[in-house]
């Protein structure tokens, strides 16, 4: 039995060039060669999927990665799968795979905040911890995971909260699923995930899903851009607040047949259902028949993209009346 390490690039695979700026260049073999005590781990196999900064990731890349992971899951000789990934969009790729994967082989995403050219790079430690997570007997029951800084998180819940700190990945409201001490994992909770596993038509996958933040006195043209989009995802104030002057444009989008999906821009909590009734509250969103999401905006967009391509919007989101 082996652990498959799939490299996609990012900081963990970056080294400094002549201008002292790091770019992805290391292979999966390079990454695993830096792990200490690798002889104490299960056999490790490597695979180079791509080698790009994570900000260059596209929906097509994520779909191909999900397909590859599903293929590897059918190999009885693979005990677990670790994906190394740049941190900027790691949470989106991990959640994309989570929505498309229903296998039994543990899948763990990880990366680094300090590239190998810097003092105290965190990539080798994160990779070691992720291999241990993927080899753990409990990991396959938890959905796709993100292991970082000796914490194990659910892909659905984790988010990047700091632009440069090594402990950037957190699950703000519910916390980690497990922690790693030396070579031991201590699990403390199991996620309850009601998201459907989606099987999108690849030809229907699109990046034309807008992600908009509601801000004070936001300009109407931000909303108007959604008139011909595949869908619009909106991060509202608090429990669902938005300026009343954008309401007519929300109606126009809805009448044009463009799905509207709303969430809160707060890092914790969900949209309200019955707290407020004024125009520009969650009551307005209900009246519009907007889909309600309990994810952050970037993951709401990922689920919308996959739900549209699977013709499963009603199964993927609540639509309170």
Q: How does this structure look, described?
A:
The chain is α/β, with parallel strands linked by helices and 321 residues long. It folds into 2 domains: 2-187, Rossmann fold (3-Layer(aba) Sandwich); 202-316, Rossmann fold, CATH 3.40.50. The chain contains 9 helices and 16 strands. The strands form 4 sheets. Strands 4-1-5-6-7-8-11-12 form an 8-stranded mixed β-sheet, sandwiched between helices. A hairpin with a 2-residue loop joins strand 7 and strand 8. Helix 2 crosses helix 3 and helix 3 (90-100) packs parallel to helix 8 (297-310). The longest helix is centred in the N-terminal third of the chain and has 15 residues, at 59-73. The chain is elongated and about 65 Å long. The mean pLDDT is 94.
Named CATH topology of the largest domain: Rossmann fold
Radius of gyration: 20 Å
DSSP helix fraction: 25-40%
Shape: elongated
Q: Tell me, what is the CATH class of the largest domain?
A: Alpha Beta
Number of strands: 16
N-to-C series of helices and strands: EEEHEHEHEHEEEEEEEHEHEHEHH
| SS element count, helices | 9
- Say which CATH homologous superfamily of the largest domain is assigned: L-asparaginase, N-terminal domain
What class do helices, strands and sheet pairing give? Answer: alpha/beta
Distance between the termini: 51 Å
Regions with little confidence, pLDDT below 50 for 5+ residues: none
- Second rung of CATH, namely the architecture of the largest domain: 3-Layer(aba) Sandwich
**Largest beta-sheet details:** 8 strands, mixed
Q: Which whole number gives the mean pLDDT?
A: 94
How much strand?
15-25%
Strand order of the largest sheet: 4-1-5-6-7-8-11-12
Number of domains: 2
């Amino acid at each position: 039995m082996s652990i498959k390490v799939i490299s996609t690039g990012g900081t963990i695979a970056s080294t400094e060039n002549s201008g002292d700026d790091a770019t992805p260049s290391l292979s999966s073999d390079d990454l695993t060669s830096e792990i200490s005590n690798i002889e104490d781990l299960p056999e490790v196999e490597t695979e180079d999927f791509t080698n790009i900064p994570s900000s260059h990731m596209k929906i097509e890349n994520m779909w191909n990665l999900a397909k590859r992971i599903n293929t590897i899951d059918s190999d009885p000789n693979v005990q677990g799968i670790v994906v190394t990934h740049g941190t900027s969009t790691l949470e989106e790729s991990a959640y994309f795979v989570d929505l498309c994967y229903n296998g039994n082989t543990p899948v763990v995403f990880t990366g680094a905040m300090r590239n190998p050219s810097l003092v105290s790079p965190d990539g080798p430690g994160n990779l070691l911890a992720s291999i241990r997570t993927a080899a753990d007997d409990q990991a396959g029951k938890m959905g796709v995971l993100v292991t970082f800084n000796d914490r194990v998180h659910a892909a659905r819940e984790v988010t990047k909260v700091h632009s440069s700190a090594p402990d950037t990945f957190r699950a703000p409201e519910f916390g980690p699923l497990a922690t790693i001490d030396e070579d031991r994992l201590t699990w403390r909770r199991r996620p309850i995930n009601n998201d459907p596993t989606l099987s999108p038509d690849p030809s229907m996958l699109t990046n034309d899903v807008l992600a908009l933040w509601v801000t004070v006195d936001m300009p109407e043209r931000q909303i108007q851009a959604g008139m011909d989009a595949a869908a619009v995802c909106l991060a509202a104030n608090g429990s669902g607040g938005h300026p009343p002057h954008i309401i007519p444009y929300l109606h126009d989008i809805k009448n044009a047949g463009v799905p509207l999906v709303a969430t809160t821009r707060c890092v914790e909590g969900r949209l309200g259902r019955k707290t407020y009734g004024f125009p520009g509250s969650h009551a307005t969103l209900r009246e519009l028949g907007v889909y309600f999401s309990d994810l952050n905006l970037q993951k709401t967009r990922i689920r919308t993209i996959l739900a549209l391509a699977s013709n499963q919007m009603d199964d993927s989101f609540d639509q309170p009346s």
